[in-house]
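B., you asked whether I could sanity-check this one before it goes into the benchmark set. Here's the sequence:
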Amino acid sequence: MIAVERFPVRRLLSDAGISDAGISDAGDLSTFSGIKKPANKIAELRNARREKERGGQGRSRTNVLAGSDFPDDKTVRFSLRTEVEVQKPDLLLEQMGSAELIRFTLAKGVIKDDQLYVFYGSALKKWWDEGDEAALQKALDSCSPL
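And here's what the prediction gave me:
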């Protein structure tokens, strides 16, 4: 699955508790070097906001994995691992061969016109391990804001 979100950079920082003064100190919000936050922090801010928008009902737990980076000054890449709560693990084990659901997500964020566009590609662990990671990375590489 591929999903796309668009979010104002200023609001992302503000919602994370970074005051207007802190945002002003960050400098140019049209580049990641201007924002002056590490890649993993940008990933954590975006992920926290995404989880909050989903309702935060405790049905899953998502962690930002190591390896977040900035391939260029307007792009951030990160990956997520989500443990999805399973109501009937025995039934899931019978149907899918696993008693747990783990979803891996690759993400690519691009700043354009003071907006952060984030492209997400996700797959369950079973398919991730069978090669979906490479296919999702290729799909994300082809994504860019218009």
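One thing to flag: The chain has six helices and six strands. Otherwise nothing jumped out at me.
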